[in-house]
Amino acid sequence: MYLIKNGTVHTGTGKVLEEHDILVEGTKIRKIGKNLCEEDAEVIDATGKQVFPGFIDPHSSIGAMGIPTRYRDNAETTNVINPDLSVKYAIDPDEVNAQEFYKSGITSVGFSPDHSNVIGGQITVCKTAPDHMANRIVKEHAAMKGSVCSTVKDVYGASNQMPKTRMGIFHLLKEAIRKDDLLKKYQMPFVIAAETAGEIQCLMELLKDEDIQLTIVDGFEFGDAIEELKEKKVGIIFGNFSNLSQISKHEIDLSRLKELVENGNRIAFTNTCKGASEGREVFIWSAIEVYRAGIDAEDVVKMMTIQPAEMLGVADRIGSIEVGKDADITIYSDHPVTRTVLYDKWQGGIIVMQTLIKNGILYTMTEDKGIFQGDILVEGTKIKEVAEHISEDCLEDGDKLIEAEGYYVLPGLIDAHSHIGLF
Protein backbone atom coordinates (compact mmCIF):
# COMPACT_ATOMS: atom_id res chain seq x y z
CA MET A 1 0.00 0.00 0.00
CA TYR A 2 1.27 3.48 -0.82
CA LEU A 3 -0.02 7.03 -0.55
CA ILE A 4 0.75 9.71 -3.14
CA LYS A 5 0.56 13.05 -1.30
CA ASN A 6 -0.19 16.63 -2.39
CA GLY A 7 0.12 16.22 -6.15
CA THR A 8 -1.64 18.11 -8.93
CA VAL A 9 -3.80 15.25 -10.17
CA HIS A 10 -4.89 15.21 -13.81
CA THR A 11 -7.66 12.62 -13.76
CA GLY A 12 -7.71 12.01 -17.52
CA THR A 13 -11.35 13.07 -17.73
CA GLY A 14 -10.58 16.78 -18.00
CA LYS A 15 -10.53 17.51 -14.26
CA VAL A 16 -7.44 18.78 -12.44
CA LEU A 17 -7.37 18.28 -8.65
CA GLU A 18 -4.94 20.54 -6.84
CA GLU A 19 -3.02 19.24 -3.78
CA HIS A 20 -4.77 15.87 -3.78
CA ASP A 21 -3.76 12.49 -2.44
CA ILE A 22 -4.19 9.02 -3.96
CA LEU A 23 -4.25 5.85 -1.85
CA VAL A 24 -3.23 2.69 -3.70
CA GLU A 25 -3.79 -0.78 -2.29
CA GLY A 26 -2.35 -3.67 -4.26
CA THR A 27 -2.95 -2.79 -7.91
CA LYS A 28 -6.05 -0.64 -7.39
CA ILE A 29 -6.86 2.96 -6.51
CA ARG A 30 -8.75 2.91 -3.19
CA LYS A 31 -9.18 6.58 -2.25
CA ILE A 32 -8.73 10.04 -3.77
CA GLY A 33 -8.97 13.19 -1.69
CA LYS A 34 -7.23 15.79 0.40
CA ASN A 35 -5.33 15.11 3.63
CA LEU A 36 -5.63 11.34 3.40
CA CYS A 37 -3.89 9.31 6.10
CA GLU A 38 -3.06 5.61 6.17
CA GLU A 39 -0.78 4.39 8.91
CA ASP A 40 0.75 1.45 7.03
CA ALA A 41 1.14 3.15 3.66
CA GLU A 42 4.45 4.11 2.05
CA VAL A 43 4.26 7.85 1.36
CA ILE A 44 5.30 9.32 -1.99
CA ASP A 45 5.61 13.09 -1.75
CA ALA A 46 4.21 14.60 -4.97
CA THR A 47 4.25 18.21 -3.77
CA GLY A 48 4.80 20.48 -6.77
CA LYS A 49 4.54 17.55 -9.17
CA GLN A 50 2.02 16.59 -11.86
CA VAL A 51 0.22 13.25 -11.49
CA PHE A 52 -1.39 11.56 -14.51
CA PRO A 53 -3.08 8.27 -15.38
CA GLY A 54 -0.68 5.95 -17.16
CA PHE A 55 -0.53 6.89 -20.84
CA ILE A 56 -1.90 4.44 -23.42
CA ASP A 57 -0.54 3.78 -26.92
CA PRO A 58 -3.53 2.02 -28.54
CA HIS A 59 -1.75 0.71 -31.66
CA SER A 60 1.79 -0.62 -31.29
CA SER A 61 3.98 -3.21 -33.00
CA ILE A 62 6.50 -3.11 -30.18
CA GLY A 63 7.15 -6.58 -28.86
CA ALA A 64 6.31 -8.28 -32.15
CA MET A 65 9.87 -8.00 -33.51
CA GLY A 66 11.51 -10.69 -31.44
CA ILE A 67 15.01 -10.39 -30.04
CA PRO A 68 17.45 -11.18 -31.66
CA THR A 69 15.88 -12.20 -35.01
CA ARG A 70 13.84 -8.98 -35.55
CA TYR A 71 11.27 -11.07 -37.43
CA ARG A 72 7.88 -9.33 -37.56
CA ASP A 73 5.58 -11.82 -35.89
CA ASN A 74 2.53 -9.55 -36.27
CA ALA A 75 2.60 -9.63 -40.09
CA GLU A 76 0.92 -12.82 -41.36
CA THR A 77 1.11 -12.23 -45.12
CA THR A 78 -0.14 -15.57 -46.46
CA ASN A 79 -3.81 -14.54 -46.41
CA VAL A 80 -5.27 -11.06 -46.74
CA ILE A 81 -8.29 -11.76 -44.48
CA ASN A 82 -7.29 -13.05 -41.00
CA PRO A 83 -9.99 -12.14 -38.44
CA ASP A 84 -9.29 -14.99 -36.01
CA LEU A 85 -5.59 -14.28 -35.47
CA SER A 86 -4.65 -12.96 -32.00
CA VAL A 87 -1.57 -10.79 -31.72
CA LYS A 88 -1.16 -12.04 -28.16
CA TYR A 89 0.89 -14.90 -29.53
CA ALA A 90 3.28 -12.52 -31.33
CA ILE A 91 4.41 -10.63 -28.24
CA ASP A 92 8.01 -11.07 -27.10
CA PRO A 93 8.15 -9.99 -23.43
CA ASP A 94 11.94 -9.51 -23.56
CA GLU A 95 11.57 -6.85 -26.24
CA VAL A 96 8.71 -5.14 -24.39
CA ASN A 97 10.88 -5.03 -21.27
CA ALA A 98 13.88 -3.70 -23.18
CA GLN A 99 11.90 -0.79 -24.64
CA GLU A 100 10.91 0.44 -21.13
CA PHE A 101 7.86 2.34 -22.31
CA TYR A 102 6.75 2.85 -18.72
CA LYS A 103 9.74 5.16 -18.20
CA SER A 104 8.01 7.64 -20.51
CA GLY A 105 4.73 7.22 -18.67
CA ILE A 106 3.26 4.75 -21.21
CA THR A 107 1.89 2.01 -18.96
CA SER A 108 -0.34 0.18 -21.46
CA VAL A 109 -0.29 -0.48 -25.20
CA GLY A 110 -2.63 -2.02 -27.73
CA PHE A 111 -0.40 -4.61 -29.40
CA SER A 112 -1.57 -4.75 -32.99
CA PRO A 113 -1.13 -6.62 -36.26
CA ASP A 114 0.68 -4.44 -38.80
CA HIS A 115 -0.79 -2.77 -41.92
CA SER A 116 -0.13 -5.68 -44.32
CA ASN A 117 -3.62 -7.19 -44.50
CA VAL A 118 -7.14 -5.97 -45.21
CA ILE A 119 -8.07 -7.80 -41.99
CA GLY A 120 -4.96 -8.57 -39.97
CA GLY A 121 -6.25 -10.00 -36.69
CA GLN A 122 -7.16 -8.88 -33.20
CA ILE A 123 -5.51 -6.26 -30.98
CA THR A 124 -4.49 -7.20 -27.42
CA VAL A 125 -4.12 -4.59 -24.65
CA CYS A 126 -1.21 -5.21 -22.25
CA LYS A 127 0.72 -3.46 -19.52
CA THR A 128 4.32 -2.43 -20.25
CA ALA A 129 5.94 -2.87 -16.80
CA PRO A 130 7.94 -6.10 -16.41
CA ASP A 131 5.80 -9.02 -15.26
CA HIS A 132 4.69 -12.44 -16.46
CA MET A 133 2.82 -11.88 -19.75
CA ALA A 134 -0.32 -13.55 -18.41
CA ASN A 135 -0.48 -10.90 -15.67
CA ARG A 136 0.02 -8.04 -18.13
CA ILE A 137 -2.98 -8.67 -20.35
CA VAL A 138 -5.82 -6.20 -19.83
CA LYS A 139 -7.97 -7.49 -22.71
CA GLU A 140 -7.03 -10.05 -25.34
CA HIS A 141 -9.79 -9.49 -27.94
CA ALA A 142 -9.92 -5.71 -27.73
CA ALA A 143 -10.44 -4.70 -31.38
CA MET A 144 -10.21 -5.95 -34.95
CA LYS A 145 -7.31 -4.54 -37.00
CA GLY A 146 -7.69 -3.80 -40.69
CA SER A 147 -5.90 -1.79 -43.35
CA VAL A 148 -6.81 -0.10 -46.64
CA CYS A 149 -3.50 1.73 -47.05
CA SER A 150 -0.85 1.20 -49.70
CA THR A 151 1.10 -1.29 -47.57
CA VAL A 152 -1.44 -3.97 -48.51
CA LYS A 153 -0.80 -3.38 -52.23
CA ASP A 154 2.96 -3.40 -51.67
CA VAL A 155 2.86 -6.77 -49.90
CA TYR A 156 0.51 -8.70 -52.19
CA GLY A 157 1.23 -6.90 -55.46
CA ALA A 158 4.88 -7.88 -55.18
CA SER A 159 3.75 -11.53 -55.33
CA ASN A 160 1.28 -10.84 -58.14
CA GLN A 161 -1.62 -11.59 -55.83
CA MET A 162 -4.85 -9.75 -55.18
CA PRO A 163 -5.05 -7.00 -54.04
CA LYS A 164 -2.63 -5.12 -56.28
CA THR A 165 -4.87 -2.03 -56.35
CA ARG A 166 -7.06 0.04 -54.06
CA MET A 167 -10.16 -1.29 -55.81
CA GLY A 168 -8.97 -4.79 -54.94
CA ILE A 169 -8.51 -3.81 -51.29
CA PHE A 170 -12.02 -2.41 -50.98
CA HIS A 171 -13.56 -5.31 -52.89
CA LEU A 172 -12.07 -7.79 -50.44
CA LEU A 173 -13.17 -5.72 -47.44
CA LYS A 174 -16.69 -5.38 -48.84
CA GLU A 175 -16.91 -9.12 -49.52
CA ALA A 176 -15.69 -9.93 -46.00
CA ILE A 177 -18.48 -7.75 -44.59
CA ARG A 178 -21.15 -9.03 -46.99
CA LYS A 179 -20.37 -12.73 -47.34
CA ASP A 180 -18.61 -13.50 -44.07
CA ASP A 181 -20.83 -11.22 -41.95
CA LEU A 182 -17.64 -9.90 -40.41
CA LEU A 183 -19.14 -7.05 -38.39
CA LYS A 184 -21.85 -9.16 -36.76
CA LYS A 185 -19.65 -12.19 -36.13
CA TYR A 186 -16.98 -10.13 -34.37
CA GLN A 187 -18.73 -7.76 -31.97
CA MET A 188 -15.78 -5.50 -31.23
CA PRO A 189 -14.40 -2.11 -32.29
CA PHE A 190 -12.66 -1.96 -35.68
CA VAL A 191 -9.30 -0.17 -36.04
CA ILE A 192 -8.44 0.36 -39.72
CA ALA A 193 -5.30 1.97 -41.17
CA ALA A 194 -5.95 4.73 -43.73
CA GLU A 195 -3.55 7.59 -44.49
CA THR A 196 -4.70 9.56 -47.50
CA ALA A 197 -7.90 11.48 -48.19
CA GLY A 198 -8.86 8.92 -50.83
CA GLU A 199 -8.40 5.97 -48.46
CA ILE A 200 -10.33 7.67 -45.66
CA GLN A 201 -13.20 8.81 -47.90
CA CYS A 202 -13.56 5.39 -49.56
CA LEU A 203 -13.58 3.69 -46.16
CA MET A 204 -16.26 6.06 -44.87
CA GLU A 205 -18.37 5.43 -48.01
CA LEU A 206 -18.07 1.64 -47.68
CA LEU A 207 -19.07 1.67 -44.00
CA LYS A 208 -21.60 4.52 -44.07
CA ASP A 209 -24.60 2.24 -43.42
CA GLU A 210 -22.87 -0.05 -40.92
CA ASP A 211 -23.34 0.06 -37.16
CA ILE A 212 -19.67 -0.02 -36.17
CA GLN A 213 -17.33 1.63 -33.68
CA LEU A 214 -14.63 2.71 -36.12
CA THR A 215 -11.20 4.15 -35.42
CA ILE A 216 -8.77 5.13 -38.18
CA VAL A 217 -5.01 4.64 -37.71
CA ASP A 218 -2.53 7.20 -39.14
CA GLY A 219 -5.29 9.36 -40.68
CA PHE A 220 -2.87 12.06 -41.78
CA GLU A 221 -5.24 13.62 -44.33
CA PHE A 222 -8.22 13.69 -41.98
CA GLY A 223 -8.97 17.32 -42.84
CA ASP A 224 -10.24 16.37 -46.32
CA ALA A 225 -12.84 14.04 -44.83
CA ILE A 226 -13.63 15.92 -41.64
CA GLU A 227 -17.39 16.24 -42.17
CA GLU A 228 -17.77 12.48 -42.71
CA LEU A 229 -15.63 11.79 -39.65
CA LYS A 230 -17.73 14.15 -37.54
CA GLU A 231 -21.01 12.65 -38.73
CA LYS A 232 -20.03 9.09 -37.74
CA LYS A 233 -17.95 10.16 -34.68
CA VAL A 234 -15.00 8.22 -36.05
CA GLY A 235 -11.90 8.12 -33.84
CA ILE A 236 -8.34 8.71 -35.08
CA ILE A 237 -5.11 7.21 -33.76
CA PHE A 238 -2.47 9.51 -35.23
CA GLY A 239 0.77 7.94 -36.40
CA ASN A 240 4.12 9.63 -35.96
CA PHE A 241 3.83 13.15 -37.38
CA SER A 242 7.60 13.56 -37.60
CA ASN A 243 8.24 10.37 -39.60
CA LEU A 244 9.39 11.40 -43.10
CA SER A 245 7.93 14.84 -42.45
CA GLN A 246 4.34 13.62 -42.53
CA ILE A 247 2.96 17.05 -41.64
CA SER A 248 4.58 18.56 -44.74
CA LYS A 249 3.97 15.57 -47.01
CA HIS A 250 0.26 15.40 -46.24
CA GLU A 251 -0.19 19.15 -45.64
CA ILE A 252 -1.64 18.40 -42.21
CA ASP A 253 -3.42 21.25 -40.46
CA LEU A 254 -3.55 20.07 -36.86
CA SER A 255 -5.58 23.11 -35.81
CA ARG A 256 -8.58 21.44 -37.47
CA LEU A 257 -8.51 18.88 -34.68
CA LYS A 258 -10.48 21.45 -32.68
CA GLU A 259 -13.50 20.58 -34.83
CA LEU A 260 -13.21 16.91 -33.93
CA VAL A 261 -12.62 17.65 -30.24
CA GLU A 262 -15.69 19.89 -30.08
CA ASN A 263 -17.70 17.23 -31.94
CA GLY A 264 -16.77 14.52 -29.44
CA ASN A 265 -14.57 12.38 -31.73
CA ARG A 266 -11.96 10.39 -29.85
CA ILE A 267 -8.31 11.13 -30.66
CA ALA A 268 -5.18 9.23 -29.63
CA PHE A 269 -1.49 8.90 -30.49
CA THR A 270 0.79 6.00 -31.33
CA ASN A 271 4.52 5.57 -31.66
CA THR A 272 3.99 3.75 -34.97
CA CYS A 273 3.93 4.95 -38.56
CA LYS A 274 2.77 2.74 -41.43
CA GLY A 275 2.40 -0.06 -38.90
CA ALA A 276 6.02 -0.10 -37.72
CA SER A 277 6.85 1.04 -34.18
CA GLU A 278 9.45 3.65 -33.35
CA GLY A 279 10.91 5.09 -30.13
CA ARG A 280 8.73 5.68 -27.09
CA GLU A 281 9.45 9.43 -27.22
CA VAL A 282 7.38 9.71 -30.43
CA PHE A 283 4.19 9.44 -28.36
CA ILE A 284 5.02 12.57 -26.36
CA TRP A 285 6.24 14.43 -29.45
CA SER A 286 2.86 13.91 -31.15
CA ALA A 287 1.02 15.17 -28.07
CA ILE A 288 3.22 18.29 -28.01
CA GLU A 289 2.51 18.96 -31.71
CA VAL A 290 -1.24 18.84 -31.06
CA TYR A 291 -0.92 21.18 -28.07
CA ARG A 292 1.12 23.57 -30.19
CA ALA A 293 -1.72 23.55 -32.72
CA GLY A 294 -3.99 25.15 -30.14
CA ILE A 295 -5.70 22.18 -28.46
CA ASP A 296 -6.32 22.61 -24.71
CA ALA A 297 -3.76 20.80 -22.55
CA GLU A 298 -6.36 18.73 -20.68
CA ASP A 299 -7.96 17.68 -23.98
CA VAL A 300 -4.51 16.48 -25.03
CA VAL A 301 -4.23 14.52 -21.76
CA LYS A 302 -7.55 12.83 -22.61
CA MET A 303 -6.03 11.80 -25.94
CA MET A 304 -3.17 10.16 -24.05
CA THR A 305 -5.33 8.37 -21.48
CA ILE A 306 -9.12 7.91 -21.38
CA GLN A 307 -9.84 8.20 -25.10
CA PRO A 308 -7.51 5.38 -26.24
CA ALA A 309 -8.91 3.29 -23.37
CA GLU A 310 -12.44 3.90 -24.70
CA MET A 311 -11.36 3.04 -28.24
CA LEU A 312 -10.23 -0.40 -27.09
CA GLY A 313 -13.00 -1.06 -24.58
CA VAL A 314 -10.77 -1.02 -21.49
CA ALA A 315 -11.90 2.25 -19.84
CA ASP A 316 -13.41 0.22 -17.01
CA ARG A 317 -9.85 -0.60 -15.85
CA ILE A 318 -7.41 1.99 -17.18
CA GLY A 319 -7.28 5.48 -18.69
CA SER A 320 -8.25 7.67 -15.74
CA ILE A 321 -7.53 8.21 -12.06
CA GLU A 322 -10.72 6.99 -10.38
CA VAL A 323 -11.47 4.83 -7.36
CA GLY A 324 -11.55 1.15 -8.26
CA LYS A 325 -9.43 1.44 -11.40
CA ASP A 326 -5.95 0.01 -11.91
CA ALA A 327 -3.26 2.08 -10.21
CA ASP A 328 -1.44 2.91 -13.45
CA ILE A 329 -0.07 6.28 -12.41
CA THR A 330 2.77 8.41 -13.74
CA ILE A 331 4.32 11.37 -11.90
CA TYR A 332 6.13 14.18 -13.71
CA SER A 333 8.12 17.06 -12.27
CA ASP A 334 6.09 19.29 -14.61
CA HIS A 335 3.47 18.97 -17.33
CA PRO A 336 5.07 16.85 -20.11
CA VAL A 337 3.09 18.58 -22.87
CA THR A 338 3.01 22.25 -21.91
CA ARG A 339 6.46 22.65 -20.35
CA THR A 340 8.40 21.05 -23.18
CA VAL A 341 6.92 23.26 -25.88
CA LEU A 342 9.54 25.37 -27.65
CA TYR A 343 8.95 29.04 -28.24
CA ASP A 344 7.82 29.77 -31.80
CA LYS A 345 10.47 31.38 -33.96
CA TRP A 346 10.12 34.91 -35.27
CA GLN A 347 6.45 35.83 -35.21
CA GLY A 348 4.62 36.59 -38.45
CA GLY A 349 7.76 36.25 -40.55
CA ILE A 350 9.14 39.55 -39.20
CA ILE A 351 12.74 39.39 -38.01
CA VAL A 352 13.03 40.78 -34.49
CA MET A 353 16.18 42.90 -34.33
CA GLN A 354 17.03 41.86 -30.76
CA THR A 355 15.69 39.17 -28.45
CA LEU A 356 16.60 38.93 -24.78
CA ILE A 357 16.07 35.55 -23.13
CA LYS A 358 15.98 36.08 -19.35
CA ASN A 359 16.64 33.80 -16.36
CA GLY A 360 16.84 30.51 -18.21
CA ILE A 361 18.86 27.50 -17.13
CA LEU A 362 21.50 27.68 -19.86
CA TYR A 363 23.20 24.57 -21.20
CA THR A 364 26.09 26.25 -23.06
CA MET A 365 27.81 22.95 -23.93
CA THR A 366 31.17 24.66 -23.36
CA GLU A 367 33.81 23.69 -20.80
CA ASP A 368 34.34 27.19 -19.41
CA LYS A 369 30.70 28.17 -18.84
CA GLY A 370 28.96 24.80 -18.40
CA ILE A 371 25.41 25.10 -17.00
CA PHE A 372 24.17 28.19 -15.19
CA GLN A 373 21.13 30.40 -14.80
CA GLY A 374 21.43 33.47 -16.95
CA ASP A 375 20.46 35.52 -19.99
CA ILE A 376 21.07 35.40 -23.74
CA LEU A 377 20.96 38.41 -26.07
CA VAL A 378 20.26 37.59 -29.71
CA GLU A 379 20.76 40.12 -32.46
CA GLY A 380 19.28 39.19 -35.82
CA THR A 381 20.27 35.55 -36.28
CA LYS A 382 23.37 35.61 -34.04
CA ILE A 383 24.01 35.27 -30.31
CA LYS A 384 25.46 38.61 -29.21
CA GLU A 385 26.00 38.02 -25.47
CA VAL A 386 25.65 35.30 -22.83
CA ALA A 387 25.89 36.33 -19.16
CA GLU A 388 24.40 35.83 -15.71
CA HIS A 389 22.61 39.18 -16.10
CA ILE A 390 21.91 41.35 -19.12
CA SER A 391 19.95 44.54 -18.53
CA GLU A 392 16.63 44.99 -20.30
CA ASP A 393 17.76 48.54 -21.04
CA CYS A 394 19.43 47.18 -24.17
CA LEU A 395 16.05 46.55 -25.79
CA GLU A 396 14.35 49.07 -28.03
CA ASP A 397 10.86 49.31 -29.51
CA GLY A 398 10.17 46.23 -31.60
CA ASP A 399 12.65 44.06 -29.73
CA LYS A 400 11.46 40.98 -27.87
CA LEU A 401 11.77 39.82 -24.26
CA ILE A 402 11.33 36.12 -23.43
CA GLU A 403 11.01 35.20 -19.75
CA ALA A 404 12.59 31.75 -19.47
CA GLU A 405 12.64 31.25 -15.69
CA GLY A 406 12.13 27.55 -15.01
CA TYR A 407 12.93 26.61 -18.62
CA TYR A 408 15.97 24.72 -19.83
CA VAL A 409 17.65 26.57 -22.72
CA LEU A 410 19.82 24.45 -25.02
CA PRO A 411 21.57 24.92 -28.36
CA GLY A 412 19.49 23.66 -31.28
CA LEU A 413 19.77 19.88 -31.45
CA ILE A 414 21.62 18.37 -34.42
CA ASP A 415 20.78 15.15 -36.26
CA ALA A 416 24.18 14.14 -37.64
CA HIS A 417 22.88 11.63 -40.21
CA SER A 418 19.47 12.22 -41.77
CA HIS A 419 17.56 11.34 -44.93
CA ILE A 420 14.86 13.90 -44.22
CA GLY A 421 13.90 15.90 -47.30
CA LEU A 422 15.24 13.26 -49.70
CA PHE A 423 11.90 11.48 -50.16
Describe this structure in words.
With 423 residues, this protein is of the alpha/beta class. The chain is 21% helix and 29% strand. The protein contains twelve helices and 21 strands. The strands form four sheets. An eight-stranded mixed β-sheet has the order 6-7-8-9-10-11-12-13. A hairpin with a 2-residue loop joins strand 2 (16-25) and strand 3 (28-33). Helix 10 (281-292) packs antiparallel against helix 11 (297-304). The longest helix has 13 residues, at 166-178. It is globular. The N and C termini lie far apart (53 Å). 40% of the residues are buried. The model is unreliable at 341-352 (pLDDT under 50).
Q: What labels describe this entry?
A:
single chain, 423 residues, alpha/beta, 8-stranded mixed beta sheet, 29% strand
How many β-strand stretches? 21
**Spans with pLDDT under 50 lasting ≥5 residues?**
341-352
- Rg is 24 Å
Order of strands across the main sheet: 6-7-8-9-10-11-12-13
N- to C-terminal separation? 53 Å
Quick overview of this protein structure:
The chain has 423 residues and is an alpha/beta fold.
Task: List the topology elements.
Layout: E1 2-10, E2 16-25, E3 28-33, E4 42-45, E5 50-53, E6 55-60, H1 93-99, E7 106-111, E8 119-127, H2 133-136, E9 137-147, H3 150-157, H4 166-178, H5 182-185, E10 190-194, H6 197-206, E11 214-218, H7 226-232, E12 235-238, H8 246-249, H9 257-263, E13 267-269, E14 272-273, E15 276-277, H10 281-292, H11 297-304, H12 306-311, E16 329-332, E17 354-363, E18 371-379, E19 382-387, E20 400-403, E21 408-409
Parallel strand pairs: 1-4, 1-5, 6-7, 9-10, 10-11, 11-12, 12-13, 17-20, 17-21
Antiparallel strand pairs: 1-2, 2-3, 5-16, 7-8, 8-9, 14-15, 17-18, 18-19
